[in-house]
Write the structure tokens for this entry.
Amino acid sequence: MLGAELAIAAQCELAEGPVWDDRRGVLLWVDILGERVHTADPVTGARSDFATGVPVGAAGLTVGGGLALALVDHFATCAADGSGLRRVPGLTTCAPAVRFNDGKPDPWGGFCAGTMRWQGDAETGGAGRLYRLAPDGSVAELIAGVSVSNGLDWSDDRRTFYYIDSPAGGIDAFDTDPGTGTLSGRRRILDIVPADGMPDGMTLDADGCLWVAVWGSGELRRYTPDGILDAVVSVPARQVTSAAFGGADLGTLFITTAREGFTPADRAAEPHAGDIFACTPGVTGRLPLRYAG
């Protein structure tokens, strides 16, 4: 059991998708419902943010120093400060039914992000998809029949893709072609019982183990690639959403949280819900992948 300390008083409605920008030495994350992209220097405390105008499911770093975004129903790119926001043509999802959620760049220079039903809309269950934005701007559908597309990551050898559809209650692994990223051989590697919460965001460490945010539990869990629970980080906010390794040595684990749907009583009981927490688990992460478009 590990503990987490308050790192950034973000006070987001739905903080998600943290990523460490090793070039600038800052942590980047999105507030999906707050419609903003945030950055913070955990050493100096300097912070900045910009509005996207619509819900923003994910932001990924690019090779050129900008960002790739999964906005409510389309992909976009912009500079690191949000200027030059440009819609990527070729894909518009059904925004009244689904919105973009979690995503990140892949090892082949693409940017993968998935859609999810709006919370509380049971009729759109299975309407989500996982998409890939290629470096040339084309978009391909990777996985269909998704309810809440969420955490995703790849092994260092490019042979395994890990994926979470939250209501399905576990983590699936796919075989991946190391040259192209083509998916095959889907299989379940672990289940999380509904009483414990729902799997949300995810990141891999340098040992190849999976750090999984469990929404509703106040926990971030480390699993081995064969699904064995190895460690638990206790977070003082029950809506744990995702995590990313950062810091100069990639040894700090930054954990995002939310306060989605909170009543005034909920906010009084969990004053740091929506903030960013950190711990040093004794293992390191990996450098972030970048979109090559």
